[in-house]
Amino acid sequence: MDIIYTIWLRNVKRYLRSKSRLLGSLGMPVFFLLVLGFGLNSVVVLPGMEQGYIGFIIPGIISMSVLFTSVFSGMEIIWDKQFGFLKETLVAPVSRTEIMLGQTFGGATTAVIQGLIIFILSVFMGLKISSIPGFVIAIVFMVLIGLSFAAFGIAIASRMEDMHGFQLIMNFVIFPIFGLSGALFPIDSLPANMRFLTLLDPLTYGVEGIRYGLLESSQIDPVISFVVLSGFTILMVVIGSYLFRKINI
After folding, report:
1. Residue 84: which domain range?
2. What pLDDT does residue 191 have?
3. Splitting the chain (249 residues) into consecutive groups of 10 residues, what average pLDDT does each group show?
4. Conformational region of residue 247, where left means phi above 0, alpha means psi within -120 to 50, and beta covers everything else
5. Which residues form a coiled coil (predicted)?
6. pLDDT of residue 39
7. Could you tell me which of 151, 174, 220, 219 has the C-alpha nearest to residue 64?
8. Dist CA 178 CA 204 (whole Å)
9. Count of CA atoms in the C-beta half-sphere (13 A) of 178
10. Other CB atoms closer than 10 Å to residue 74's CB: what's the count?
11. Measuring CA to CA, which residue among 179, 187, 177 is closest to residue 149?
């Protein structure tokens, strides 16, 4: 457990000390909140949404922030490959699975911190949470999104050497995942074929789980969302651990 904690602490400290990284990663979520939220709030009317369209998309923007931060934490692996830290870690008498778990927990923690920052900004923009237990439920789903996609990013990074190539592949994969998640639109209003694709997207269940926690409104049963996202998280951690054990330096 010491190696898991050490690597987790290293990742968190690197994140907190990099003010430019922290502020830069807020750019896109804040842009979506301001432009889409306030821009379309008076135009888009959603039945049953007391807080309007901006209230509807806030859980989706929080999910987006957690998603992007956790996935791109996989770049830490490539960075450590290039600068030799990973080689030093791998030759130590510790399990590679422990190293991978430390990286995953570190990436998930930074992602949840990023999501909480967006949440705090959303409160100042008028978000009203349903209850304290609901807020805890939202945190649980944020953690699951962070863990699953941090493990996903590490799995991809374990097979790559080029940081720029990793960014391109992640952008190619992550934008469709976010776009199909129902973060910006109600999935109940979609055509049957699009709804099917949306339900195949694991992020959909995270978005709906956070939406249920913050607004007590969800288009998917929260228990189903929790089970599906938990299963996806376990699957990604297993795959990420396997691919990380096969890594060559």
Report:
1. 2-245
2. 80
3. 83 80 75 73 62 80 90 79 71 79 91 90 79 90 95 87 77 86 82 86 93 86 94 94 80
4. beta
5. none
6. 66
7. 174
8. 8
9. 23
10. 28
11. 177
Give the whole-angstrom CA distance, residue 6 versus residue 74: 17
Query: What whole-number distance in Å separates Cα of residue 74 and Cα of residue 156?
Result: 8
Residue 40's pLDDT is 66
SS3 243: helix
Q: What is the model's pLDDT at position 38?
A: 67
Q: How many domains does the chain have?
A: 1
Structure tokens at 131: 């209850």
Q: Please tell me the distance from the alpha carbon of residue 65 to that of residue 78, in angstroms, as a whole number.
A: 21
What angle (nearest 5°) sits at the alpha carbon of residue 62, between those of residues 57 and 63?
A: 95
| CA dist list (Å): 229 to 103, 133, 167, 204 | 20, 19, 24, 9
| CA 151 – CA 128 distance, rounded (Å) | 32
* Residue 29 identity: P
Rounded to whole angstroms, the maximal C-alpha distance in the chain is 60
Phi-psi region of 127 (alpha: psi -120 to 50; beta: other; left: phi over 0): beta
Q: What is the pLDDT of residue 129?
A: 77
Rounded to an integer, what distance in angstroms lies between the CA atom of residue 148 and that of residue 108?
8
Encoding tokens for residue 157? 């990074």
Tokens of 158: 């374990």
Q: Is 150 helix (H, G, I), strand (E, B) or coil?
A: helix
Contact 240/100 with Cβ under 8 angstroms? yes
Torsion over CA: 224, 218, 59, 68 (sign): positive
State the pLDDT at residue 48: 59
Tally of helices (H runs) and strands (E runs) in the chain: 13, 0
